[in-house]
Amino acid sequence: MALSAAKLGSSRAAPRMILLNHATVSSIHLKSSPSSIYARGVGPRYWHLSIVCKKEAGTPPTSSISKAPLQKDIENGSCLGLSSEEYNREACLDASEQESTVSITVFGASGDLAKKKIFPALFALYYEDCLPKHFTIFGYARSKMTDAELRTMVSKTLTCRIDKRENCGQKMEQFLERCFYHSGQYDLEESLAELDKKLKEQEAGRLSNRLFYLSIPPNIFIDVVKSASKSASSKNGWTRVIVEKPFGRDTESSAALTRGLKQYLEEDQIFRIDHYLGKELVENLSVLRFSNLVFEPLWSRQYIRNVQLTFSEDFGTEGRGGYFDNYGIIRDIMQNHLLQIFTLFAMETPISLDAEDIRNEKAKVLHSMKPLQLEDVVIGQYKSHTRNGISYPGYTDDKTVPKNSLTPTFAAAALFIDNARWDGVPFLMKAGKALHTKQAEIRVQFCHVPGNLYKRCFGTDIDLATNELIIRVQPDEAIYLKINNKLPGLGMKLDRSNLNLLYSSRYSKEIPDAYERLLLDAIEGERRLFIRSDELDAAWELFTPLLKELEEKKIAPELYPYGSRGPVGAHYLAAKYNVRWGDVNTSE
Ligand SMILES: NC(=O)C1=CN([C@@H]2O[C@H](COP(=O)(O)OP(=O)(O)OC[C@H]3O[C@@H](n4cnc5c(N)ncnc54)[C@H](OP(=O)(O)O)[C@@H]3O)[C@@H](O)[C@H]2O)C=CC1
Ligand SMILES: O=C1O[C@H](COP(=O)(O)O)[C@@H](O)[C@H](O)[C@H]1O
């Protein structure tokens, strides 16, 4: 077993391996069921691995026991990744008495994302008993703050689940006691060394696993990783880094970021987050498709006319105009969130649910894409609008946005996959800010029924009679299938009805926030929902030529009023491929 001990976790450059074979190991015992990704919350959450080694020079101790959150963690780091010398010295000499600890450091703790998503998600995990027994949370930023001030700040962001309020106040107190703050510079090794000291105090000699969350602007990602690798990485456990988007703004800048990160990290230490992959209905997409016989056979050009992936927000870039103007909606939503859903939707059946098998299939989809043509894209920008006496600002009314900005706040695109399954099927994407509604959904329009016996009962518009499967990612999570049904009575009138799985009616459990799932996965070393560097490269290769062309040709976005349905150009684009946007009537 060759084990990639973290580059970050090691003060030495030499690869660290330990050969486990019949000559060195007399027996291996794996006790207790793990919290598999499909069994969260229903059993013990720890593997207990015992390796009884033969007593020979240079081999690990006779009996060593290691605990780790998941088998993957054992494989990916902790004590088994050490050379036999380190193995004895650092981790496993008396590992039977050693417990592991996880320290989570949030860089940019004073910022918006940390407050809005990261701390609340960590609390929710704590509340659900999903965090390891020994854990510590450190907020890190330049702002001056005491532990008590951080706790006050965090406490304002915490909420209890609607369905679980028992002991919530007490749990909050307990959680906050595990939160600390360190003020420091992002690029100073000394600051990170001070953090390291504080982390060690909390770790109290236990096997230390460290998760760093980069909730900071991307221009300082590398600084932090560099300083952390030198001064604050774990010496005997794993070290992982969650990286927030944007991962660059085109092929070149993304590659440069990846190169920078890989100077200090192995790919398997980098957790590139796309929080849409953590959304319940996106996670369910593969379950729906691969565990129900009725869907997978239909999942191809033979039965599917088109697929629509839509994202809309009913508010503008309020407060984030400065960031947004450098990116625009294609980079902000399409190149990542919608494209990730798209690859999950279109991929072939993976060999297994293993992260690499899934990510291999997703990457293949991206490599099979037809180049995206400018004529298959429509862009828009919202303008001010007054409704019911209330006036809504236009995008360029934001003081942080240049008055002559051409940055799109809306885009629609037609994409095609050049493979046997999807040849000729238009995948339409649409994303926009300041539209009439907040919604994200996947809509599958199936082919017309050949020689339909009932065609006379539909009138002339046969599109209205075709089946549609809708996966509503948010809000009001639902999966529904539009079918034709006979209206009860003596006549023969058909009615289009929904077979409707509305989550709030079917399940009483509150749906966890995407960040909860993703943070837990990162702690457990589960990479399935994180983006691998080759996926990222392929995603940028698809969009970079288009983005460059839009910028070089200074294509002006079509203006649309704040709160409207977006530019009409999106309808012409769909019509070019005989498609009608299914979300036009929101009740549908
Ligand atoms: N907010 C959101 O909804 C989303 C954010 N993201 C991404 O997550 C990351 C964090 O987002 P968000 O919290 O909104 O970011 P912020 O702009 O709020 O920055 C986070 C913290 O980083 C520090 N910081 C800000 N600018 C600089 C700078 N120029 N140099 C050094 N430090 C700086 C500040 O802390 P201090 O001054 O105390 O050090 C700030 O509190 C970003 O990469 C963002 O793109 C992704 C998706 C959604
Ligand atoms: O990544 C981003 O996502 C949010 C939308 O996320 P949601 O979970 O609230 O749907 C978007 O507002 C933001 O512009 C973008 O950067």
TrEMBL record:
Name any GO cellular component annotation.
chloroplast stroma
Swiss-Prot/TrEMBL catalytic activity = D-glucose 6-phosphate + NADP(+) = 6-phospho-D-glucono-1,5-lactone + NADPH + H(+)
Report TM segments.
none
Q: Which pathway does this polypeptide act in?
A: Carbohydrate degradation; pentose phosphate pathway; D-ribulose 5-phosphate from D-glucose 6-phosphate (oxidative stage): step 1/3
| Domain Glucose-6-phosphate dehydrogenase NAD-binding per the UniProt entry, residue ranges | 106-284
Q: Which UniProt keywords apply?
A: Carbohydrate metabolism, Glucose metabolism, NADP, Oxidoreductase
Protein known as: Glucose-6-phosphate 1-dehydrogenase
Q: Which organism is it from?
A: Zingiber officinale (Ginger)
